[in-house]
Amino acid sequence: MINRSLNILIVLLVLLVVGIETHTYWFYQLRPWQPSTSMGRLIFYYSFFTVLTNLMLAASCLTLAIKPTCSSTFFSVIRLNGLVGVLITIIIYNILLRGVHRPPTLLLQLANESLHVVIPILGLLTWLIYGPFARITLKIVLYSFCSFLLYAIYIFVRGHITGQYPYPFINVSKIGYEKALIAAGLIAMLFFVLVGFLKIIAIIRLRIIK
Fold first, then answer.
1. Is the pTM of this model over 0.85?
2. Which of 74, 138, 142, 169 is deepest in the core (most CB within 10 A)?
3. Rounded-to-integer distance, Cα 203 and Cα 152, Å
4. What pLDDT digit, counting tens, does each position of 133-159 carry?
5. How many CB atoms lie within 10 A of CB 11?
6. What is the DSSP letter of 28?
7. Is 208 exposed, middle or buried (0-12, 13-18, 19+ CB in 10 A)?
8. 173/131 Cα distance (integer angstroms)
9. Taking every pair of C-alpha atoms in the chain, what is the biggest distance, in angstroms?
10. Can you give the pLDDT at residue 209?
11. Is the CB of residue 111 less than 8 Å from the CB of residue 103?
């Protein structure tokens, strides 16, 4: 019951925060370099790695709240994407972006902290306590990495066309392709490190449960 309640809490929190930011991006151009149209700003907003991975975490939590025994490949990939994605988010944001990105209002600052800190911590703690743990297989990891690779291709292609990149460390217009690709490569390495970290914990937790 507690597990289900925590999963539902994460879902509701993600929907609330993303809803607040979606409303803001639709009606307001917060920065001069953001798209001038409402639809353009929404596309830009939903191109953020943070937003997409929080939504995937929420989708996996909703699935677990409805069907705790779900073990399909699609679910397992979304679950791993959400967990690893929010861990990458909390690490990258607090190391590289916290001093760069500051939302203009208190409400948006709270929403920003929720997506970059609060929800990732809740998601990780819920997984550490309740799992499920037996779903990080080589196939799932490869599918997950391929989905992140497709996201990277989308960001670089879209950035080439529009000149807009969601993060400064991959902004080809300012730092060039070499540095941007190096940054993307380092994040890819971080992905595998975090997957290894989660796999080790999963093995330990499964042994404890047995």
1. yes
2. 169
3. 30
4. 878 899 999 999 999 999 999 999 999
5. 20
6. -
7. exposed
8. 42
9. 56
10. 66
11. yes
